[in-house]
Amino acid sequence: MTGRRRTHSFLTALRPRLPLTLSLPKARALSAGALAVCLSTAVGCGAVPGGTGDDTITVMTWAPEKTKTTNKPGMPALAKAYARWVNSHGGLNGRKLKVLTCNDHNDTVEAAGCARRAAAENVVAVVGSYSQHARSFLGPLEAAGIPYLGGYGVTDDEFTSPLSYPVNGGQPSLLVGLGQQLAGSCGPVTLVRPDTIAGDELPVLLDSGLTASGHRASVDQRAAEDATEFSGHAQRALQRVTKDPQEEEGCVVPALGDRTDTFMDSFRRTREDYPTVRTASVLGSIDQSMIDTTGSMYEGSYVTGWYPASSDERWDPMREVIREEAFGDNRIDASDPGVQTTWIAYTVLKRAIESLGDDDVTARSLRRTLDDGLKIDTGGLTPTLNWSFQDLIASSGFARLVNADVTFQVVREGKLVTERKGFVNVSKTLEKTQT
């Protein structure tokens, strides 16, 4: 029971229209632009998977779990809880929601395997997921015509694929926003980030925010993604931001995902030998649960996020679902931005399905209603979301980005609180940023 019609795959449907000499690997190499034209046309590229008209809508949520690097177990756990909640309240337009989950293990091959499984299971969308390997999973999703709705935004590819519908501005907006937040408060800035392909983009983005606000660029300091100790890195970062005693108080920015806490433990022990400095990071590297377990280590830290602070009453509906369907599940942390992104992604899915009324819910019908300008209210957690062409941000590097709003927060008395009321839009800086 998948809610989708058994049809040929996108490539199978496309093959008769290709020259006989064109091999399948070449067919797979169709440009994203050509793919977008085909997928936006109801006929002319063959049939795409559709619905059977039954009472089950099947989607998938994936994320890495039990790895040595970044893990996001709360995202698939919340997706399952959401399905239980929505089904206990009558389903989506009377249809049952079925959520499949997959662990990509932070591995390129595994990520592609999750995408192929999604196609094999005839899911209508991949919703509220996290993976660093977009180049591996987007190809199979595009070939099957499956929308990627509400990814975490950890890679730039999520902001270029015509089948991607991001609900936030991803790492680009966070780093640009953090640069703007720090420009008026910090002297020298040192960024400590993973020595990975994804990590290579971070200093460009942070510096765009800094320099747009009249601050000089940061010092880029690389660290092993799976390091278990950061004393040397903490010492080097402190030396760099305190080198000139005449300068304004410096800031150290660890953007190491799950390893940020490990860095901060080394930093706490090392900083006693240096003048006072401040720390800063982005949500995903710091969240309220980490602050709760480390005492005063993060006190005074600047933090840039996508959404309102986790204590905001706009999160009450999510917390109610967690209380009803996942009470005691310690994988789900309501302050985790991955969990929050999954909640918003499923909110979008619900609104999109409701807009279809009694029509079949298929991958194609979901894409069509989203592309045609459906405006989605997320209860103030984001601006109104709308992926119609005219609402896309004018940035060549982030062609699918529709939400460039961030929030400026700070740790005060052990709590992440709002530093500046409301959202800050960083679209103008992003438009000028080349990663």
UniProtKB/TrEMBL annotation:
Per UniProt, the keywords (alphabetical) are: Signal
Q: Does the keyword Signal apply?
A: yes
Q: Does the keyword Nucleotidyltransferase apply?
A: no
Give residue ranges for domain Leucine-binding protein: 73-379
Q: Where is the signal peptide?
A: 1-36
Q: Which family does it belong to?
A: Belongs to the leucine-binding protein family.
Q: Which InterPro entries match?
A: Leu-bd, Peripla_BP_I
In its UniProt entry, the species of origin is given as Streptomyces ortus
Task: Report the protein name in the record.
Answer: ABC transporter substrate-binding protein
